[in-house]
Amino acid sequence: MFCKSSRSIAIWTCSFVILLTFPGLARAQTDSCGTTTTNHKTARRLAVATAAVAGNGALFLYFKHAWWQGQPAKNWWVGNDLNDAQFGNQDKFGHFFGGYELTRAGTEALRLACVSERKALLWAALYAYMSQFEIEVYDGTQNIYGFSPDDLAADFAGEMFGVLQHRTKWLQNIKPTFSYVPTAAERNRGLPGHGDEPRPSVDYAGQTYWFSADMHAMLPDRAKPFWPALIRLSVGHSITDYVDAATGAQLQGRRKILLSLDLDPEHLPGDNPTWRAIKHQLSFYHFPAPALQFTPVTRGFAWYR
């Protein structure tokens, strides 16, 4: 069974575009709600609702083209890929990140529309769950995929993390982030002797998912001067190549666990509202940085991308 972790990248990109249509969103969504007229609140809510519908439609069309086009259909069926060792469960991290991003972006957009935090969290998490559930149901009609309860559980976990993060101050110091660099196998795809995999959408070895910690905020006050606010500490998960770059043959992907320093764009200088919104969105991407890999072999990277 093929996994679907690249969906999270599409979701983050969609969130980035939608949220940047509302300049000044970052950390200050409700500043003007107390003085906003009813008509302006209604206009904001209509804009957010339109963006949500458009975003859902855009994601569905992307998945239809990237995943379902050319795939044979069958009667609806349920698959289970939790023990799919070839990809090291990399897709589950992608589903988690996707559920988190939809919840996070939805909550921020609804708060901008002057919806209370409690209602914004509820509606954003519900929207995220229904969007991902819709995709899983459609997967159930495809011969190669199938409806996956495991994927849906990972989606739900990401959504719940997004809710808990908003409600728990300590969790606000932890950000799920991602990075991606095409592998040599993906670049060689389609060459003589190579097959059609891995497509960018299934280039799992090029994708890394991180939990990034704001160490400066977490340290006691006496230790803060020793850790720059601009630098985070991240734990990452990826896999080794599962397609041989030289021959196109299938390989057994092996789990990679990494520890890395990470740039936090939110601490870059500049306080323009649009720039703050851009910095906030970029803070969910892991930029190239030094890293230490623990599995399947221990090695260091001067510049892990």
Outline of this structure?
The protein has helices at about 5-20, 40-70, 90-110, 115-140, 150-165, 185, 215-220, 275-280, and strands at about 175-180, 205-215, 230-240, 255-265, 290-295, 300-305. With about 300 residues, the chain is of the alpha+beta class.
Summary keywords:
single chain; alpha+beta; six-stranded antiparallel sheet; 8 helices; globular; disordered N terminus
Descriptive overview:
With 305 residues, this protein is of the alpha+beta class. It has one domain. The chain contains 8 helices and 6 strands. The protein has helices spanning 7-19, 38-68, 90-112, 117-139, 149-167, 184-187, 215-218, 273-282, and strands at 174-180, 207-213, 231-239, 255-263, 289-295, 299-304. A 6-stranded antiparallel sheet has the order 1-2-3-4-5-6. A hairpin with a 3-residue loop joins strand 5 (289-295) and strand 6 (299-304). The two termini are 27 Å apart.
How many separate helices?
8
State the strand order across the main sheet: 1-2-3-4-5-6
Distance between the termini: 27 Å
Summarize the helix and strand pattern as letters. HHHHHEHEHEEHEE
Unreliable sequence segments = 1-5, 20-29
Strand content: 5-15%
Which class do the helix and strand fractions yield?
Answer: alpha+beta
The main pleated sheet reads as:
6 strands, antiparallel
Describe the SSE topology.
Layout: H1 7-19, H2 38-68, H3 90-112, H4 117-139, H5 149-167, E1 174-180, H6 184-187, E2 207-213, H7 215-218, E3 231-239, E4 255-263, H8 273-282, E5 289-295, E6 299-304
Antiparallel strand pairs: 1-2, 2-3, 3-4, 4-5, 5-6
